[in-house]
Amino acid sequence: MNPDPHAIGLDSPAAFACPQGSPASAVGAALAAIGLTGPRPVLILVGGAANLDAKVAVRLCPLFRDLVPVLDRLGAAVIDGGTHFGVMALMGEARQQASGRFPLIGMAPRGRVAFPYPGTTTPENSRPVPELDPAPYRSAWQDRQEPRVALDPHHSHFLLVPGECWGDESPWLMAVAERLAIGRATLMLVAGGGEITRRDILHRLRQSGRILALAGSGGTAEALVAWRRGKGPLPVDDQAGFAPALVEVLDLMEAPGQLPRLVAQALAC
Q1: What is the CATH number of the domain that holds 44?
Q2: Which of 42, 48, 109, 164 could cross-link to 52 by cystine, CB 3.0-4.6 Å?
Q3: What does 209-267 look like in DSSP terms, one character per residue?
Q4: Over the chain, what is the mean pLDDT?
């Protein structure tokens, strides 16, 4: 069952699930609830949100549009943070403009996003939003001073996971990618980013997963590029001897024409 899309500013219906518990125990049921199965290749998109440089965003727009037919052809899924900012909004817009069909799955801590209040009803059947018990969330949602963030209107699926802080979704991103791929290829694409992107990268490296970092996109991506090139420290808290070969670098100025090819190669197996 889906909440009313217009209640959260969505242009068209999207599939929602609000899992409880841990990623290890809940990810399978959550994906089944939104009608997604594997195996399929998966692109994990992380990076700049509200802090994404405007000049970088201008360069990313056509790059993401060029990725859409590649992702459709491969039958891939894309996972990101799902909010209406930065790289996530750009990917949603690219999918919409290019009439993409691939699942674009937004994942965020439900305590940080604008979402129908737990226990509210949907107009089509007047039943409560599923899997949400209002009691654990009411005081935190009402009392927190930091405003909740809008979801992107062009995503096709959402998993709103337990949590009140940005970064609580990071382990879920990786768990969903593994569950959807089921042995198919996965790739993390990093453009810009801050502290949450650092957490995402750390989870990815701990899985020995492949990463493609866009040089020239700023932020955490730039620090990761510097580490890959032997010019700086790894921008994560854990310095546990990760292999630099896991990270590939593509210069943003050279990305037109190159990014779709590299993504296709990485996800083809």
Answers
A1: 3.40.50.450
A2: 48
A3: --EEEEETS-HHHHHHHHHHTTSS--SSS--S---GGGEEEEEGGG-TTHHHHHHHHHH
A4: 85
- Whose tokens are 């994942």? That residue is 107
Nearest to 247 by CA among 230, 264, 268: 230
Q: Is the pTM of this model over 0.90?
A: no
pLDDT digits over 41-67, tens only? 999 999 998 889 999 999 999 999 999
Helices and strands, number each (H, E), in the chain = 8, 8
Beta bridge partners of 44: 79, 188
SS3 content of the chain, % helix, strand, coil (to 5): 40, 15, 45
Name the domain count of the chain.
Answer: 1
Distance (Å, whole) CA 219 – CA 235: 10
- Please tell me whether residue 111 adopts helix, strand or coil conformation: coil
Please tell me the distance from the alpha carbon of residue 234 to that of residue 227, in angstroms, as a whole number.
Answer: 5
219 in the Ramachandran plot: left (φ > 0), alpha (ψ -120 to 50) or beta? Answer: left
At residue 129, what is the residue type? V
Q: Per-residue confidence at 114, pLDDT binned at 50, 70, 90? A: confident
> How many of the other CB atoms lie within 10 Å of CB of 140?
10
Q: What is the pLDDT of residues 150-196, one digit of tens each?
A: 899 999 999 999 998 999 999 999 999 999 999 999 999 999 999 99
SS3 of 190, please? strand
**Which residue segment(s) compose the domain that 108 sits in?**
5-267
